[in-house]
TrEMBL record, chain A:
The lineage of its organism: Eukaryota, Fungi, Dikarya, Basidiomycota, Agaricomycotina. It holds the Pfam family F-actin_cap_A. One of its GO terms (cellular component) is F-actin capping protein complex. Belongs to the F-actin-capping protein alpha subunit family. InterPro entries: CapZ_alpha, CapZ_alpha/beta, CapZ_alpha/beta_2, CapZ_alpha_1. The keyword Acetylation does not apply. The keyword Cytoplasm does not apply. This is F-actin-capping protein subunit alpha. One of its GO terms (molecular function) is actin filament binding.
From TrEMBL, chain B:
One of its GO terms (biological process) is cell morphogenesis. Residues 187-222 are annotated as: Disordered. Heterodimer of an alpha and a beta subunit. GO terms for molecular function: actin filament binding. Belongs to the F-actin-capping protein beta subunit family. This is F-actin-capping protein subunit beta. Its main location: cytoplasm. Coiled coil: none annotated. PROSITE patterns: F_ACTIN_CAPPING_BETA (PS00231). The lineage of its organism: Eukaryota, Fungi, Dikarya, Basidiomycota, Agaricomycotina. InterPro entries: CapZ_alpha/beta, CapZ_alpha/beta_2, CAPZB, CAPZB_N, F-actin_capping_bsu_CS. Keywords: Actin capping, Actin-binding, Cytoplasm, Cytoskeleton.
């Protein structure tokens, strides 16, 4: 494999990292490729893609909160800057993000769009109280529409990493809200990795779209935002409960259908007889080796 | 620095089990010199092949591979054909035929379908009765429609045995790979009556995939009457192991991963619970006074 192919393979590995394990994956890759110089440059795009896709959280400089790295949070690079920046709408700052160390630097104040800010702030407040009600380690960011669009973007992410007990998990949700068409569309993504003497992964995707009830957008921003979050709360709650049903379905139908807990006889096999059946079948020339049901 | 192979195995324990073949392929591409060890250490989904002579299905894995060809346990022939493909000694082949028949019965009893194969190989030191082998089982459920759940179960049991007089010592390493997928679409939603205004405008779509593998080992001693005792001994060990692992898989797949989801998000309102707790504390304090 030439250098380009090796970087491509390494990037693919990185993008598949389970929640909270990108450093472990990176360490493995470093040892396997054993060419840090090549990797250093080559894997930057993959790290960036991973952070944006996975809603990586970052401590925002000079604040006590975290914000989400994502496509919606991306600003620039504008003509005057050479580096890409990310936005924390809550503190109204933008910063440079190091995709390897996961640190923010060079915070700069940004001006919010006056027309959108009241609704954005209200949606943010409602999101934060929703987060507090249902997530223990959650982070939420709410973005005003980017230039030329009508879409507010609400993102939230919750991570739990427990390497001592060999598991990790991530919940991501994203909703785009169009106040003109009153359309909300969203997706929920859950990833769980359990790796004690094995490697078991849960990956779920759920997309949903709905229309806001008539009148919902003509109310003050805080009322509209509460209504929207109530609908999201309801949807996410229902989805979580429906997962239980899916689990049950998989257990009852698929799992049992693949392998029985015990044979139809409700007894373990009598191995001496199993060998005997064969002998008997051979002697009688019969093809069937099983006792007739 | 760790050995390269250890890093490869650690990586394979972390990357999604649904992409094992693709990722093993990439690793072999990066380090061809590690290929043999990697392919021996990473269990990959078993491939179903059809014996050209008998028309019977069998399973292809690293253990019945010679170059690009796989040996069928039914006809003992390689596909694509090999003139000098490795085959077991006639003594071992006799036992292999018996073992394949026995595990075919086992498969029918527990899997009610699927495919099984047993491959034995002669010991490097041909003096004793020591030998090794693998028992593989696979069942796939293909859904009748797109929204039916689908899944597959692959068992790989590798064993070694050492004869000690009228006893034999067995070492068994078992891996089960289990994939379960359920797709959900909007059409399942139309059955729900539109009790709320606007409910008819809701569209939903999704997929739940649970996949992975678990490995366990055991060592046991069993009495030995004749050569075929090996088959019933190994049979009992594998049966016991599969029962244990099925319980374990059930616990991890449907218990542990679900608990982690509920650790990420709580269905109940945590704020409300917090306030209630405080209120309760206050009440207790009030009563105590």
């Amino acid at each position: 494999m030439d250098a380009t192919d090796r970087i491509r393979a390494a990037s693919q590995f990185l993008l598949q990292s389970p929640p909270g394990e990108i450093n472990d994956v990176l360490n493995d890759i470093r040892n396997i490729i054993s060419d840090d110089e090549l990797l250093q440059e080559g894997i930057q795009p993959a790290l960036r893609e991973y952070n944006i896709e996975q809603f990586t959280v970052v401590d925002v400089p000079d604040t006590n909160h975290q914000s989400i790295i994502s496509e919606a949070a991306r600003v620039g690079p504008s003509h005057s800057e050479s580096e890409e920046r990310f936005l924390d709408p809550r503190s109204k700052t933008s910063f440079i993000f190091d995709h390897l160390s996961l640190e923010a630097s060079d915070p700069q104040p940004i001006e919010s769009v006056e027309e959108h800010e009241p609704f954005r702030a209200a949606l943010e407040a409602a999101s934060l109280s929703y987060l507090k009600a249902h997530f223990t380690d959650g982070v939420a960011s709410v973005f005003s529409p980017k230039e030329g669009t009508n879409l507010f973007v609400l993102q939230l992410v919750a991570n739990k990493y427990n390497p001592t007990n060999f598991w990790s998990g991530r919940w991501r949700s994203e909703y785009t809200i169009d106040l003109t068409t009153k359309q909300v569309s969203g997706r929920i993504l859950i990833n769980v990795h359990y790796y004690e003497q094995g490697n078991v992964q849960l990956a779920t995707t759920h997309t949903v779209s709905f229309e806001l009830p008539p009148g919902a957008v003509s109310t003050p921003p805080s009322t509209t935002s509460s209504k929207i979050l109530a609908l999201i709360e309801d949807e996410e709650g229902k989805y979580q409960v429906s997962l239980n049903e899916t689990y049950q379905d998989m257990g009852e139908k698929t799992f049992k259908g693949l392998r029985r807990a015990l044979p139809l006889t409700r007894q373990k096999l009598d191995w001496d007889k199993v060998m005997g059946y064969k002998l008997g079948a051979e002697l009688s020339g019969s093809k069937s080796v099983l006792p007739s049901p | 620095m760790a050995e390269v192979i250890d890093s490869m195995l650690d990586l394979m324990r972390r990357l999604p089990p649904t992409r094992t073949e693709e990722n093993v392929g990439s690793l072999v591409g990066i380090c061809p010199e590690e290929a043999d060890e990697l392919l021996q250490s990473v269990d990959q989904p078993l491939q179903v092949m059809v014996d050209r002579a008998t028309g019977r299905e069998y399973l292809a894995c690293d253990y019945n591979r010679d170059g690009e060809s796989y040996r069928s346990p039914w006809s003992n022939e390689y596909d694509p054909p090999l003139d000098d493909g490795a085959v077991p000694s006639s003594r071992m082949r006799k036992l292999e035929i018996q073992a394949n028949e026995a595990f075919d019965t086992y498969r029918e009893m527990y899997y009610e379908g699927g495919v099984s194969s047993v491959y034995l190989w002669d010991p490097e030191d041909a003096s004793g009765g020591n030998f090794a082998g693998v028992v593989v089982l696979k069942k796939t459920m293909t859904p009748a429609s797109a929204l039916e759940p689908s899944g597959s179960w692959d068992s790989i049991h590798v064993f070694e045995t050492v004869e000690r007089g009228r006893q034999a010592h067995y070492k068994l390493t078992s891996t089960v790979m289990l994939h379960l997928i359920t797709r959900k679409g909007s059409e399942s939603d139309s059955k729900v009556p539109a009790d709320k205004k606007g409910t008819e405008n809701w569209k939903r779509d999704g997929e739940v995939s649970l996949s992975g593998s678990m490995t366990r080992q055991t060592e046991q001693d069993w009495p030995l009457n004749d050569a075929s005792s090996h088959i019933s001994n190994i049979g009992k060990m594998i049966e016991e192991m599969e029962i244990k692992m099925r319980n374990l898989l059930q616990e991890v797949y449907f218990g542990k991963t679900r608990d982690i989801v509920y650790d990420l998000r709580s269905v109940d309102d945590l704020e409300k619970a917090r306030r209630q707790k405080e209120l309760q504390k206050e009440l207790v304090g009030f009563i105590k006074r």
